[in-house]
Amino acid sequence: MIKKGVFLLLLFGILSLTAWGRDFSISSPDGRLRVVIRVAETVTYSLMHDGVELVCESPLSMTLNTGEIWGHKAQVRDFRTEEHRGTIASPFSKSAMVTDHYREGVLRFRGDWALRFRLYNDGMAYRFVSHKKELYEVASEEVCFRFPADYDAYLPYVRGDDPWQSSFENIYSRAPLSETDSLRQAFLPVLVDAGGDRKICVTEADLESYPGMYLRKGASGSSLQGVFAPYPTRTEQGGYNMLQQRVKERAPYIARVQGPRAFPWRVVQVTTADKDLAVSDLSYRLAAPSRVQDIDWIRPGKVAWEWWHNWNITGVDFCAGINNDTYQYYIDFAAEHGIEYVILDEGWSVNKVADLMQVVPEIDLKKLVAYADAKRVGIILWAGYWAFDRDMEAVCRHYAAMGIKGFKVDFMDRDDQQMVDFIYRAAETAARYHLVLDLHGMYKPAGLQRTFPHILNFEGVYGLEQVKWADESVDMVTYDV
What we know:
disordered N terminus, 27 strands, nine-stranded antiparallel beta sheet, ten-stranded antiparallel beta sheet, alpha+beta, globular, 37% strand, TIM Barrel
C-alpha cells in the first residue's frame, strides 16, 4: 500500500517528467533533415541529416530584464505541427516565384511565449515568439551550435577595436572550430564544413527591431555561440566625415520590446553541393511578406559608378571631377550602353556637415535630372547614414519631387536594435516616395528584400571596392571564387 505522501511525490515526479522530460521531433518534407527538441530543465535541440548528427544537443533560451528565462524549467502547454506547400512572389529575383514547402512545429509554453521550428529540405530555422503585451527588455538570448566533431569553420571576423562597429567587410578565415579566435567575433553568415560533402551555413532571417547576431567560439571546443550588441543609450556624431553616430554608452540589455512579436529566425542551412549555397533563397522564404503594395514603379538595373576610379575620364574637353560636365558624360555613357542608373557618389553634397540639402556649387542637380530623364537614365544619390536619418522625411520628399530615383545609404556600420530600426524606417519612408534603396555598410541579407522589394542591393562584403587598397597578401581571386 502506497502512503499518501509517497503517492503525491510519485505523482509530482510523473508530472515533472511530462513537463520537463519530453522530446518533440519534426522532419523536413523529404525526410532527410530531422530536428529533435528536448524539453527538460533546459530546452535543447539537435539536428540530423540522413541520420547523421550535424548539430548536437544545443541549448536555447531568452532572458528578460525581469529575471524570467524562457527555456529554463519550461512547461509545455501543447505542440502542434503542420505542413505548408505554396509559392512566394519574387518579382526582382532570379525567378518570378519561389517554392515554399516546409513542415513546422510550434511549442507553446506556460507563460507568454512559444518556440517555432521550421524544417525545409535545405535547412532548419527556429525563433522565439512572445505574447506579452507590456513593455519589457531582453537582457540576453542564448544561441548555441554544438558540433559532434572539430569541423573546419569559415568565419569573417569583425575588424577594429569596437566589436559592435563594423562595415561587415572582411575576408573569411578558415580554421578548426577548436582553433577559432576566442577574443574576436564573426558576423554572419558563417560556414561549417561537416565533412562528407555536407556544409552547414549559419545565419539569421527576418531581423526586425532586434540586434543582429554574431558568433564567437563556444565554451566547448567544437561549438559556436551567439552574441548580440547591447542597446545604445548615448551616441555622438562622428566617424567617417561626421556621417555616423558613434555609440558611447550601452544599456544592460539588447532589445526593448513592446507588445506581442516574433523574434528573428536562427537559421541552419544544410547542403551537400557547394553551388546550392550561392543560390539559396532560404532567408527570403523566412522573411516577412512584402509591405509595398504597388511595385510598378520599382526598376532594378545596373549603375555607372564613378567613385571607384575617382571620376577619372580622359580625352574630354572639360575638367573631369565632381561637376555637371562629368556627370553628363556618365549619363551619355549609361544611355549608350543600356545602363539604367548613374550614381552621384560621395562628393555631391557639402562634406562633413551631414546635411543632404547642401549641394556643392559645381553640381546643378535639377539640370542633371532633366538631362538624365531625356535619355531615360535614373539618378541615384549617395547619402551618409546620419545625414539621411536626421531629416529623412524632408530629404525623401525634396529629392523625389526633383526626380531623383533613389539613394545609396552608407556607413551604418552597426546592427544593434537602434540601427536595425533605422533600416526599417528608411525602407518605409523611401517606399512612400517611390525611391529605391542600395544599402552600403550593411549587415548580412536577412530577407529584407522580400519585405521591401525596392531595396535593390546590399553592400556588406569584401568585394571590388577593396581592390582599390587591398594588401597584396590578400588573394582576391581565390577569395571571390
